[in-house]
Amino acid sequence: MLQGTVWLSSHEAAPQHTRHRPEQTLLYQIVEQHYPRFLAQLAAEDRTLPEYVQHEFSDFLKCGRLEHGFLRVRCESCHHEKLVAFSCKRRGFCPS
After folding, report:
1. For residue 6, what is the enclosing H or E element?
2. CA distances (Å), 79 to each of 8, 20, 21, in order?
């Protein structure tokens, strides 16, 4: 897992950030629940998805999840900290 710290100086206004929780979206839940069975069904039929499609799905399931990497952002003046999860930065169906 990658992580880091970003320091904000006291003259910078820390933007309000609400952590995106992709696991709570309907799209994420559908993909998480059905994608493994879909791959198993394809394998049973001796078929596969193109590699780039498989990467799109696996990156989507990691996107915005703290356990797959994050930055710790800390205000220098008040020392308030927030965790910001990494995004997959894909152009497919990822909303990030």
Report:
1. strand 3-8
2. 9, 22, 24
∠ CA(21), CA(24), CA(27), 5° rounding?
110
Q: For residue 53, count other CB atoms closer than 10 A to its CB.
A: 11
CA atoms within 13 A on the CB side of 73: 16
Across the 96 residues of the chain, what is the mean pLDDT of every consecutive 10-residue run?
Answer: 57 62 89 96 96 91 86 87 82 68
| Domain range annotation of the chain | 3-7+22-85
Which residues lie across from 62 on neighbouring strands?
none
Q: Tokens 């008040």 map to which residue?
A: 78
Looking at this protein, which amino acid is placed at residue 73?
A: V
Cα–Cα distance list, 18 to 15, 30, 43, 53, 92 (Å) = 10, 23, 39, 29, 23
Global pTM value: 0.67
